[in-house]
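Researcher: Predict the fold of Class I SAM-dependent methyltransferase.
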Amino acid sequence: MRSFPELVAEAEAVPTDGWDFSWFEGRATEERPAWGYARAMAERLAHADAALDIQTGGGEVLASARKLPRLTVATEGWAPNVAKATALLHPLGAVVVAAPEDAPLPFGDHAFDLVVSRHPVTPHWTEIARVLRPGGTYFAQHVGPGSAFEIIEYFLGPQPAAACGDRHPDRERAAAEAAGLRIVDLRTARLRMEFHDIGAVVHFLRKVVWMVPGFTVDRYRARLVRLHERIEARGPFVAHSTRHLIEARRPPAA
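Model: C-alpha cells for Class I SAM-dependent methyltransferase follow.
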C-alpha cells in the first residue's frame, strides 16, 4: 500500500494542462451522462458549415470528432491550453484563437451556424446569440449546480445554498431566452464520482482549480492526511457531479 507522501508527490508532478483525464484511470471514476455529448457533438459538426468551440481546453473533445466543418474555430483563454490545443487541432484544419473567457467573442456577427462547448466556465449568452447565424444552434454540456459539492465542503466547510445556484439549468434557460435564443432540448444528470486514493483528489483539485480556490497541498495538508486515512479505512471518497445538456437555436430571419 502506497504512503501518503508517495501518492501526493506523484499527483503534484502530473501536468494539469488540457482536459485529458486518462491519468485518473484506476484511481478515480465518474459516471457519464446517458446522452453522450462527444458523440452527439460530432454528429452536428458533420453537418455544419462553420463551427465554433468555446473554451476548448486542450482541444481533446473537438478533436474526437471524425469530421470537422469547412471552417472550424476554437477559443481558449489559458496559455498552456492554447498551446496544447493548437498542436492538436491545427493538423485537423481547425484554428485556435486565444481569447479570455470573460471577454466578448472575437468574431463578427452571424459567423457560425454551430457553436459548441463542453463545460464552459460561464456561458455568455448574448455573445453566443450574436455570433450565431439565423437558424444556427448552440449545443453544449454544462456543469450543473452543486457539482462535486462534497469535495468542496470537505475542504472549505459548509457552504451557503447560493454558492451552488449560479449554474442552475432554469437560470441558464432564462438567460438564453433573454438573449433571443429558443431552447430546443434541456436535460440534467446527477452522476457518482469515486476517488480511490488521495493522489486522485490532489490532482483533481490542481486541475479543476475553481473547486477549492487557492488549493495547495501545504495549505490543506491536515485535511488531506485525514482524508487519506479515511479512504484507506473505509474505501473511496464519494461525491456527485451534476451536468446538463442544452441545445438552443437562434430563430431564423423573418
